[in-house]
Amino acid sequence: MESANQFLKVFRVQTRRWLFVVLVVAVTHLLFQSLLLPYGKALRSLMPDSEVGVHDESGLPALKSFSKSVMVRNPLTVNASDLMSDSVFKGSLEDDEDSKFGSDTGDDSGLREVDGDTNNGIVSEGKGQDNPIELVTDREVDDDSVAENVKDLNDLSELEIERIGENSATVEPAGEAKQSLPLKQIVQPNLEIVSDGVPEQHTSQSIANIGGEKTLSIVSPLTNITHLKTEESNASSAASSAVPKSDIATSVNISALIGSPGKKKMRCNMPPKTVTSIFEMNDILMRHHRSSRAMRPRWSSVRDKEVLAAKTEIEKASVSVSDQELHAPLFRNVSMFKRSYELMDRTLKVYVYRDGKKPIFHQPILKGLYASEGWFMKLMEGNKHFAVKDPRKAHLFYMPFSSRMLEYALYVRNSHNRTNLRQYLKEYAESIAAKYRYWNRTGGADHFLVACHDWAPYETRHHMEHCIKALCNADVTAGFKLGRDVSLPETYVRSARNPLRDLGGKPPSQRHILAFYAGNLHGYLRPILLKYWKDKDPDMKIFGPMPPGVASKMNYIQHMKSSKYCICPKGYEVNSPRVVESIFYECVPVIISDNFVPPFYEVLNWEAFSVIIAEENIPNLKDILLSIPEKKYFEMQFAVRKLQRHFLWHAKPEKYDLFHMTLHSIWYNRVYQIKPR
To answer: How far apart are CA 158 and CA 338, in angstroms?
Structure first.
């Protein structure tokens, strides 16, 4: 009996020791994993079915099959039963903003990149209106425009059925948020992560902290210009002689309105440190077209000679006195544009890479805020006129990825880190450079991408730096290269089957509203707009977010159709879908966004059909609009209607439409960037 008790005593001691050892090992493992996996995967790493990223044959990260349904991004789910078999695209990948019209849904905190080519590219804050911590995407719908419900059954029947591919999954609406999508996290610890603000000194530096009196001028060195430029105090006396005293107004001190200089803020909530005016952009564009900055090819090509010959013909284009198809005032040089377009249609051949797996590659989104990249992808991949199967015949090479799907598939919720998104595209670029010889010949200068997501400039930085980038986020202070890159129109498509729904507006005589704006208060600029004009003047219909519902959506559209001028202020980033919406509804756009390069800037004369106002002149908005003569307004409104055809998507591309305009600008910039061997 005594020996038995002794045995039990020894057994208890040994058991306690082993439990202590196991506990120490487990705690050590968790601590170690927490350092390496800062995204909540430490506990899951102990489980038998832990997330382990896999690579497909191309060396790119691929999806892995799992036994449970997991979340890509609410409201999208991935079903494990579909992962190993062919599946269909059951729903439209829309933005979170689609669920509530004109309200702050999803994430408003905004994951923003800091200017500059440093590795510290992320600034996080995590302070949304209704969801203070959850950070999923870069920004809400730029608003508010005409959002639709995710589960609108009338629209589900209009969607095209797309194949996702063997490594992807069926995407369908879901109700609740679940786990993040299990993908390999290509994350370098302690890189690309910045605290919940930016260096303090950035806040105090603003475009409005300029001493001296400001003078408004409606005079421009270009023809048909309605642009407002601020002059420094040393030039105010000369400008004031050309502008009546009643038109001279005080500019707004933006720094004083956005908060205390001592409080850290995100880049998207601060005014830019430097401002490039539309006049300076013109000079930069002309200078870059005169002197190419593209890399000299490693060996000569017949295709290069064809492009150089086209450049000579474009520059020798005969002056067109009148054209039945094109409205000449819309263009910088209508003769050069028409000749360039003809040569593109006759000469250009594009090779579309087949590499890359769905859903990030070859999976166009045809509806929502980022539809431009999807429509171009769909029409380019299905094109028989420009696309060739033999890369030796190609003048340009298209990399068909979706920046929106890249975020949906790879961004880790609440991680405040996009390193893995950029790394994914870096590996893709390296894979095509290793597989094909064409990238290495020019360093990617004859390759192009089309991306509408706000993160695209960051995701394609460095490894795709020589490529032609067609970007919605066309910010000259964030890496956009005038004369090489293309400003892609951000088009909010509400119906995938009928992208022209609700097209048109009232004639000028029936537009009784002077100016209209409604939307969420994203960024630093829109609150300033509302501070000065909300409920201040019956002629200025300036609102905040409209309440959700079909009635509000139609009210928004009717306001645009009934207004002379539609205000297009920047949100978190410089671009806004209102610019294209204004054209869609035949309303003269008023762009308030410093450093924004308007769409197709290399060929279009934006001063002929829009008003571009410096951010600091918001207090003078009504005076500026009233100072435009009625005759000039009628000319601009007529020009907007003529311009409309260039900003429309068609299921079957039409001459001079948005597909052809996008491709032409890519071609045109390549023509002026190419260097002979």
So the answer is: 35
